[in-house]
Amino acid sequence: MVTDSQQGTRIDEIAPDIYRIHTPVQLPGGQAFSFNQYLLVDDDALLFHTGPRKMFPLVSEAIARVLPLQRLRWIGLSHVEADECGAMNEFLAAAPQATPLCGQVAALVSVNDLADRPAHALADGETLSLGRHAVRWFDTPHTPHGWECGLMLDTTTRTFFCGDLFTQPGTGDLPLCESDILGPSEAFRQAMDYFAHAPQTATTLQRLADQMPHTLACMHGSAWHGDAGALLRALATRLTAPASEAAAQG
Ligand SMILES: [Fe+2]
Ligand SMILES: [Fe+2]
Fold first, then answer.
1. Nearest-ligand number for the alpha carbon of 37
2. For the CA of 219, the nearest ligand
């Protein structure tokens, strides 16, 4: 459903109770790109990522088509960047029951200072019940950004909120796809080099793959449905391939 015809913001259900809020943008230089946030509707509704602060009117308008903003209970984030949590305080003001939700390092280093209310920090492997759904937190330091980085899985639908992993260029109009996203995201990574280069990245990705997710809720581009464990393992292989091999695959 399109919620802002001028900007092209839309909201679509990509898994049971899980909605992708999607806004296409143009990067400086004219390249098409997109920002997604995900809304999980449950007794305790969760928004995973707020979008940039300046996008708050578009994102909040889209959410309001599905549930009143005041019903948001958790505002989750992977790591501290503008597209992950730039509108945190706007959402905390609009939803009096809402609490920032992040990993322990993010709470300690940034969120408890930047956010207008203290964060609820999840430990690595900890599960939080939302009602019908539950989410499990995974610390993923430097995968792909920041020491404080972490990601979460909805264990009920096995939807993995994979943040900046599998970032795709382009407008990402399709809410959910089953076509190849590894190729486009790897081509984009080679051009932009937006990953931290940490020694434990492959191990981190293997651990996420072991959770056997069915759906990848990507932050940039289309969400993806399929054997997401295999795709995470393929990404781990690509990230650890020697530079010469990566160029050949690229
Ligand atoms: Fe990021
Ligand atoms: Fe991002």
1. 2
2. 2
User: In residues, how long is the chain?
Assistant: 250
The CATH superfamily of 2-249 is: Ribonuclease Z/Hydroxyacylglutathione hydrolase-like (3.60.15.10)
For residue 113, the CA-to-ligand 1 centroid distance in Å is: 19
* Ligand minimally distant from the alpha carbon of residue 149: 1
Structure tokens at 195: 């990953």
Taking the centre of ligand 2 as the mean of its atom positions, its distance from the CA of residue 220, in whole angstroms, is: 7
Distance CA 152, CA 77 (A): 9
152-210 pLDDT, tens digit per residue, is 999 999 999 999 999 999 999 999 999 999 999 999 999 888 888 889 999 999 999 99
Whether pTM > 0.90 for this model: the answer is yes
The pLDDT tens digits for 63-117 are: 999 999 999 999 999 999 999 999 999 999 999 999 999 999 999 999 999 999 9
Opening angle at CA 144, ends 140 and 147, nearest 5: 55
pLDDT confidence of 243, banded at 50, 70, 90?
A: low
CB atoms closer than 10 angstroms to residue 80: 20
CA 210 to chain centre: 19
From the CA of 144, the nearest ligand is: 1
d(CA 145, ligand 1 centre) in Å? 6
Reading the block at residue 172, the tokens are 């990402």
The domain locations on the chain are: 2-249
